[in-house]
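Q: Structure tokens for this one, please.
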Amino acid sequence: MATTTNITTTYAGQDAFDYVAAAVRNSPTISNGGITIDPNIKFRKTLRPANLQDIISDATCDFTATGSVTTLERVLEPKELQVNQVFCKLDFQDTWDALEMGFSAHDVLPKTFSDFIIAEYIARVAEANELAIWGGVDGAGEYDGFKTLIAADANLPTAQEIASTSIDASNVIDEMAKVYNAIPDRLFGKEDLHIYVSSKVFRAYKLALGGFAAGGVGANGVNGLGTNQDINIETFSGVKVFMTQGLIGDEMIATRKQNLHFGTGLLSDHNEVKVLDMADLDGSKNVRFVMRYTAGVQYEFAQDFVTYGVTNSAND
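A: Here is the predicted structure, written as tokens:
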């Protein structure tokens, strides 16, 4: 079945919700539950974490204020972003025609060519958003990610900023233990405490548990099963391990999910998705894809981070 020659699909505001939501929520950090989502932010949201100290005293008949309450303000302001692309229909037509003819392992296919195009771009936006959540630098097409924000925050205790080394199966357990041991006592036992790791660190840890590291769990591997096993990594000494493509190389970050916030305006008027066929306008086979949305991240407490391989310029 040939590709339709006239495509004009437009979604704006709340009508774009499903597509924009799919684009931002398909980022693994979001879809796998590694971050707190703050949706429907029209402009900005002020996070007001409170630091409570010495609040308990001996009982008396009077009301006597005790301790201190320090309220901080951190602003989560999603940035307006857009995708403006021009492509030739022929670039996608062969794939779409093959899918329609049944040469695919997918059970559910987009009903129209425009839906297929939107799905392709949603996947690409999700990949880019995953990288931005952690390593984004405010500029062309990005917002400041967690690494960028924490690297400039002097409130990160120096003892919780750990220098990195090249990680492999032989030393990954020792290096992860450095992060583990630097986690503040007040965070231990929290259900949402995670050690976020890069794919390189994750693979090295899996190799070590499988018995590839003589200095790790030994040649026999976990449960003495050696390398002939599929290890489902969930924790490191009881702390959840979360792999993300947003961290790279030897990087790791430990903190609570509650401390990490992702903001977006899913129902905002700024949301927009368009697929415009240019055939009727200039006789070409070109298609224009437009997507507008908002996204950004912020955290509450720098003191609740342990970083590995993230240089803090404010403390150095």
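A few notes: The longest strand covers residues 286-299. Residues 60 and 300 are 35 Å apart (CA to CA).
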